[in-house]
Design brief:
Distance between the termini: 27 Å
Radius of gyration: 12 Å
Mean pLDDT: 93
Strand order of the largest sheet: 1-2
Largest sheet: 2 strands, antiparallel
Number of strands: 2
Length: 97
């Protein structure tokens, strides 16, 4: 059974490859994402301007996974893409909100 996301903690859920995964923007997760993507404030600005790259969104999601991913990162990226950008947008809004 999948754990539900706690929006009060800033968590979001996303369905990837048939599984609901919880994303939690913890300090550790955000520092790891920043190490890969650069300053998060710039990432938020790009997202607000509609210039966030798909790879950036997937990397943020990957680093914010609450539990270890049940699949490798490349399969996770493909799963996020297959689920559609419209399905990923609510999770992105919660993480960067």
């Amino acid at each position: 059974m999948s754990e539900a996301a706690n929006e009060a903690r800033g968590e979001a859920a996303i369905r990837v490859c048939g599984e609901t995964l919880v994303l939690r923007p913890s300090f550790t997760a955000l520092v790891a994402a920043e190490g890969e993507l650069g300053p998060l404030f710039a990432l938020v600005e790009r997202a607000a301007a509609g210039r966030l790259a798909l790879g950036e969104m997937v990397a943020l999601f990957w680093h914010c996974l609450k539990a270890p991913a049940p699949i490798p990162r490349d399969a996770f990226a493909e799963g996020v893409t297959a689920g559609g950008l419209a399905a990923a947008t609510p999770a992105l809004r919660l993480l960067i909100g």
